Amino acid sequence: METLSGAYRDLIKEIMAVSKLARVVTEHNVYQEGDKDALRLVDRLVEDLILPGSGISGMDHLNELFRKASEGKSCLLLLEHYSNMDLPNFSYLLRKEPDHGAEIAQALVAIAGMKLNEENPAVAAFTGAYTRLVIYPSRSLLSLDTEKNKEEIVRSNGINRAAMKTLLKIKVEGKLILVFPSGTRYRPWDPTTKKGVREIDSYIKSFDYMCMVAINGNLLLIRQGDMMDDYVNRDVVRYTAGPVVSCAEFRNRTREQAQAAGIEDKKQATVDAIMENLEKMHLEAEKHRETLLEKQGIVKKDPET
User: Quick one: pLDDT band at residue 305, thresholds 50, 70, 90?
Assistant: First the structure.
């Protein structure tokens, strides 16, 4: 199998050449619009790898959520996370949908960790194709020493304050805020990467409605390292959007269930319920995808463990 950097070296160079991404994140540039020139090139990669049968189930739910966002309601999309192609694939497939798909893709604003901008220029170029609100993730904050990293802590606070201020504004302007509740890509050798991060409860608390979206199939098989080290994989990719849910009702229900079960951390219990729902959706959708794979004579591939 070939790595992304090996199989698409020339295309990656093209994407990097057109990218206008602000690599260094500050409190003044946390909201970053997607670059159409980079998007056109990333689409070429998706088109080369994605197989017939790929698509989105539950477009009626996404349309309903989009209507609510258009009416000024704050709306969340909570997606599983398997690779850095999850957003590119989702955007591409949305824009192929005839019923408001392109409008929904245009309305997406992904919450993204700052390392996508700063660590690898090739990864950053891919990242810049999509509109994002950049944050300093909690996982990164945990690694900072209060004495040794004082300046970085000040920087992280400034970035996150600016991001939250921007979020309060844009979430009622017809945008669909896309969040990966696991906070990182799932790594099969590290089961903790499929656990939802506690801070997602704050998003659910402050939004009106949400849809959960399962992802089945992947164009990149994750390995140790970053996106450029992943194996490319031609595959049938399916996204399954669940029903529109009231955030308040969902959160209140899960907190009541946690209370009845004697669970003290109600915030984590809410996020755990999100991840459990996504896993159920994923397993059910995989049955359908396996039928599509069988019809095309495709053998499922698993990432390196």
Answer: very low
Residues paired with 212 in a beta bridge: 78
Residue keyed to tokens 């990097």: 16
- The pair of structure tokens assigned to 208 is 């009106």
Cα separation, 124 vs 116, whole angstroms: 5
Task: Quote the radius of gyration of the chain (alpha carbons, Å).
Answer: 19
Rounded to the nearest 5 percent, the helix, strand and coil shares of the chain are 50, 15, 35
Average of per-residue pLDDT across 240-256: 98
Q: Nearest 5 degrees, angle CA 216-CA 217-CA 219?
A: 140
Whether residue 224 contacts residue 304, with contact meaning beta carbons closer than 8 Å, is answered with: yes
Nearest-angstrom CA–CA distance, 213 and 298: 24
Q: Nearest 5°: phi and psi at 271?
A: -70, -40
The distance of Cα 224 from the centroid of its chain, to the nearest Å, equals 19
**HSE-up of residue 270 (Cα within 13 Å, Cβ side):** 20
Handedness of CA 60, 62, 64, 66 (dihedral sign): negative
pLDDT per position as a tens digit, 87-127: 999 999 999 999 899 999 999 999 999 989 988 999 999 99
What is residue 303's predicted lDDT score, i.e. its pLDDT? 59
Cβ atoms 46, 219 nearer than 8 A:
yes
**If we measure between CA atoms, which residue out of 137, 155, 132, 146 comes closest to residue 21?**
132
Paired sense of beta strands 220-221 and 231-232, if any = antiparallel
Does the reported pTM lie above 0.70? yes
